[in-house]
Write a structure and sequence with these properties.
Number of helices: 10
Largest sheet: 6 strands, mixed
Distance between the termini: 35 Å
Strand order of the largest sheet: 6-7-8-3-9-10
Shape: globular
Radius of gyration: 17 Å
Length: 235
């Protein structure tokens, strides 16, 4: 049974329709790359799944429960976590306060993520646990945003622009983290422009073009068909 089902989802901003019938499903333990050029509807799709954007048609089902018109806070409590574009850490909370405030194990995760375990994953955060969010570099804020999502011990994590604007060394830290999560069976949806790296971790991919599913398939199929990269990804 699919953990997430997106069924013919349509969404618009006032009179401007953005999504035109998106369909896909994701099983527990799978990782999916969500791809497409800027402005093609990726973030709108994420917001629609999370209850942050009203859906004008279609259905979103999580773990057998219709969440199409549920509020974002209820969807989060069901076990869907977001690492948002732009990180959005709280500037006046310390690293440790972020991780402590968000820690929960509502779904009795077998591989429990605690603040201490996040510090093991990202030693930079351990060194800066007393620093405020506003005192962190962009890369450190991204680590904190991922750690904040992990300590909720979610059933699924969505990462929007996972490595955008990060220095190469920090990007490698994030890819290492995502590889670990995949190996542990964490369900992931990852938006990122580095297709070569996504292919290494994601089990399959969805390409969106102008609010519609242009292509879906395995990492192996995407690796071999470079015409897809040129046509839909501008690579």
């Amino acid at each position: 049974m699919s953990l997430l089902q997106v069924i013919n989802v349509r969404s618009a901003y006032q009179e401007s329709q953005v999504l035109f019938g998106i369909d896909f499903s994701l099983n527990a333990g799978e990782s999916m790359g969500l791809l497409g050029r800027n402005g093609m509807g990726k973030t709108t799709l994420i917001r629609s799944i999370l209850g942050l954007k009203s859906i004008h048609g279609g259905q979103v089902v999580f773990d057998g429960q219709d969440i199409t018109h549920q509020p974002a806070d209820k969807i989060a409590r069901l076990g869907v976590a977001l690492v948002p574009e732009g990180r959005q850490v709280f500037p006046n909370l310390s690293v440790n306060e972020h991780l402590t405030a968000f820690f929960s194990n509502r779904h009795r995760s077998k591989t429990l993520w605690t603040p201490a375990r996040v510090y093991e994953l990202f030693p930079r955060l351990a060194e800066r646990k007393s620093n405020l969010g506003s005192q962190l570099s962009g890369g450190e804020q991204q680590m904190l945003a991922i750690g904040r999502a992990l300590v909720t011990n979610p059933r699924m994590i969505i990462l929007d622009e996972a490595t955008e604007g990060l220095a190469p060394l920090i990007r490698e830290e994030i890819w290492r983290c995502l590889r670990l999560l995949c190996n542990e069976g964490q369900t992931l949806i990852v938006v990122d422009k580095y297709v070569n790296r996504l292919i290494e971790i994601a089990s399959h991919h969805l390409i969106i073009e102008r609010g519609q599913v242009a292509w879906t398939g395995s990492s192996e199929a995407l690796r071999e068909d470079r015409q897809l990269w040129t046509r839909y990804l501008g690579v």
